[in-house]
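Class, discuss our next protein.
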Amino acid sequence: MTKILVTGSSGFIGRVLTNRLTEKGFETIGFDLPSNDITQEGSLDFLTEISHVFHLAGKTFVPQSWKNPPGFYQVNLMGTVHVLEFCRKNQIPLTYVSSYLYGEPEYLPVDENHPVKSYNPYSHSKVLADNTCQFYARQFGLPVTIFRPFNAYGPGQSPLFIIPEIISRVLNSKEPVLEVMDIRPRRDYIYIDDLVDALLLSVNTAGGIYNLGSGYSKSVGEIAELVMNYTGIHKPVRAKGNDRPNEIFNLYAGIQKAKRELGWSPVISFETGLKRCIDAMIF
């Protein structure tokens, strides 16, 4: 049986990926805090007979990165270096999941050739980790597949993220007004099952860099309207009027490379995925 290591297996993406790998007959090993810590050099060395590594572990919440930049660099950059070293020493193919690399788009859709930028410690730590993965692939011949998903969502996601936050606030009868930071920003949302479909393909992929998304964007205001239409709960929507520094108002992925080279395409529409999220919170 093929043995696959998943760092961050207890996270939002990791849980779904681990379940799908198990369903497909792979033996999976999860590596997570508090018992396992990728920031410790050599922390993976006790593992043997690993045939593939999915590296998902990391700190993800942007506002927290402003409060604790060193913690984000330690986990997202140095943790990735330790995983790369484990893979290099054992010549194990690696799948790395990156995100928030492109910043303000110079053109749309954003493809893999778009310049990478960073405007907060979280995205900077991911840019550095992504670049380090490319270095190991180039200099050490390590098979590395880098996926750059745009905004992943789905049932079970942390309430700190925009879609579960909006759903929760619409469903909350004690909130007569749906208050959000800004209704204008548009993002590309990819449903968790579509994302995991792509990750699974990398087990048999020689390497490469791939954007993952839907190929179109939805605004915060549109999400709120869709949630209220589906639930039948209608509230006034009010923006707080506090613009975030370096806000990006429209961003969506070019996904032609993944379609062409991996045969991957998203199959879950945003409306279908949103309904699944709502149903999971109601029932």
Summary: The chain has a mean pLDDT of 95.
